[in-house]
Specification:
disordered C terminus, mainly alpha
Length: about 220
């Protein structure tokens, strides 16, 4: 068994890497809408943002089961073994999908993997939201409101990742138009709007993760 100290260290390191990679992704993505940059540079920033987005997700996938293990070790809340196993299975599936995204950047398989990730996030998010809301409303199956709220926020965070994906995908069309026809006001406006929506989704995600970490975070010893 892994000791509580090691789990806390892993959880802290994973969160720190998530935060650092998230900030880097935000900065690189924001630069895409800079019309003063040469198109190859903007294209490289887009590719870099696509790759950078995977690292925070890997960390996020690990933060969830690690946090659950800390909850168990700290005797913060009694957890069923099935719930812990479910968390690790879900995290492993998500990690495999993310690694496949790294392996297949373009082509039909890349789209299939991307849709698989979105479907996973949608279903997992729904599970967390329903589980959390039902517990907040009825006190079952979780009777601690802070823990139920924590799971609810995790579900909303997973849905926010979908918003980031969809908004980022909307950049493809204006970038193609700019590459073919050069910079034009309508293309730049569409690109700027897509980038701004992506960045807004990222900010919402950071706020949700911060709120999730705050809820009950100080109770882990």
């Amino acid at each position: 068994m892994i000791s509580g100290d090691i789990l806390r260290l892993l959880h802290s390191v994973t969160f720190a890497v998530w935060l650092t990679a998230g900030v880097a992704t935000f900065v690189v993505t924001a630069a895409i809408k800079n019309a003063a940059l040469p198109f190859p540079t903007r294209q490289a920033r887009t590719r870099g943002s696509r790759y950078l987005q995977i690292l925070p997700r890997i960390c996020f996938a690990l933060i969830l089961p690690l946090g659950l293990e800390l909850t168990r070790l700290g005797n913060i809340y009694p957890l069923d073994p099935e719930l812990r196993i479910g968390f690790w299975i879900g995290a492993t599936f998500w990690l495999v999908v993310l690694l496949l995204r790294l392996r297949y950047e373009t082509g039909g398989l890349e789209k299939t993997v991307g849709y698989a990730e979105i479907a996973f996030q949608a279903l997992a998010g729904m599970g967390f939201v329903v589980y959390g809301l039902n517990s907040l409303a009825t006190g079952a199956p979780i009777d601690d409101s802070w823990f139920a709220a924590k799971l609810f926020l995790v579900g909303v965070a997973l849905w926010t990742l979908i918003a980031i994906d969809l908004n980022f995908r909307s950049l493809a069309w204006p970038l193609e138009e700019i590459e073919l026809d050069g910079s034009a006001p309508e293309n730049e406006e569409a690109l700027r709007r897509g980038v701004d929506h992506t960045l807004a989704s990222m900010v919402i995600l950071y706020m949700l993760v911060a709120a999730t970490g705050f809820l009950g975070g100080g109770m882990v010893r």
